Amino acid sequence: MAAVDISGTVRERAARELRDRILTGALRPGSRVDLDAITEEFATSRTPVREALLELSYEGLVRIAPRSGITVIGISAEDIVDSFTILGVLTGQAAAWAAERATDDELRQLRDLAAEVAAKSGAAEIGESNWRFHQRIHRAAQSPRLLTQIRQAVRVVPSNFLTVFPEHEKHSLDDHERLLDALESRDSGRARRVAEAHVLDAGRSLARWLDEQSDTAQAVDQ
């Protein structure tokens, strides 16, 4: 297997990759994580991978036991919906404040970032561009405390969401346009509604996916 690209902060990239696999069902609940195999796959040392797994244990996604090793706990579809609902409230508030507080220059930057996301349609890089777009909105809210809360809550969103759910892509791009229109109109209420619905739709898609994965796995086991 080719080495996973985890350039940058190795622990963070390793945690993100493993989290994505758990959130999308690639690593199923009850499965064991082979530390040596993961270390070899990521082409790194054991320490950052071990630290990444410890981070996931704090998030309740894996269980680390001295004798039984590392076991995937996973996350239920219900927990996904709850988590995305919380994230939706936070991002909705960020969008509302951005509509009130963003500078004209920030709004122009958001237009450029949205165009970049659209230009990456169908490509693997769309996830990174999409994250930059939303992160810029969060920053435009000009609330460090809210930004900290969003950074914690957003971990439940797989970084490869638009790659795993390509059918969600067009709807997502349309939402970006509606959100930009609300921001540029300085309509905080509409910006909040669009941003919150955008996140909730994504959460429901992921929840349905996990349910389907679980049903398929149970059928195979039987």
Write the topology of this structure.
Blueprint: H1 10-23, E1 32-33, H2 35-42, H3 46-58, E2 62-65, E3 69-72, H4 77-101, H5 104-119, H6 126-140, H7 144-153, H8 161-164, H9 169-184, H10 188-221
Antiparallel strand pairs: 1-3, 2-3
Sketch the topology as an H/E string, one letter per element: HEHHEEHHHHHHH
Which stretches are low in confidence, meaning pLDDT under 50 for 5 or more residues running?
1-7
Major pleated sheet: 3 strands, antiparallel
What Rg do the Cα atoms give? 18 Å
Instruction: Give the helix tally.
Output: 10
Would you mind describing this structure in some detail?
With 222 residues, the chain is mainly α. The chain has helices at residues 10-23, 35-42, 46-58, 77-101, 104-119, 126-140, 144-153, 161-164, 169-184, 188-221, and strands at 32-33, 62-65, 69-72. It has a three-stranded antiparallel beta sheet. β2 and β3 form a beta hairpin. The longest helix is centred in the C-terminal third of the chain and has 34 residues, at 188-221. It starts with 9 loop residues before the first helix and ends with a helix.
